[in-house]
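Troubleshooting log. The previous structure file for this entry was overwritten by mistake, so regenerating from the original sequence record. Sequence copied from the archived sheet and checked twice against the printout by T.R.
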Amino acid sequence: MSNAKVLPLLEPADDEAAAPCCPPLTERPFTAGEAEAAARMFKALGDPVRVRLFSAVASHEGGEACVCDISDVGVSQPTVSHHLKKLKEAGLLTSERRGTWVYYRVEPSVLAAMGKLLTTASAT
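Regenerated output below.
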């Protein structure tokens, strides 16, 4: 079992939006905790293979993908598993084992949080 810290998965209150882990970059300087949370997410997405895997899961029909359906990213299966593990540890993916296969999902709240982080702060 890993002791890695993960970004919290936000439970969407409604379709409107979920609160991001951090405020928009343009709103105010990050606290140390917010900076750590954002850095974990960006570090996990700092590898082109991970970005491809994250995109494959996020865009897969039904909102989830079996590892058997997304492993064609130009690296070996053990390397795919390693990268999926890193995405999961960063809180960007969740997984569920069904028989011999593992299915991955990007929670809508994660995408909402990522989008809010990179938006301009709204005028109040």
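The radius of gyration is 15 Å. Archived copy saved in two places this time.
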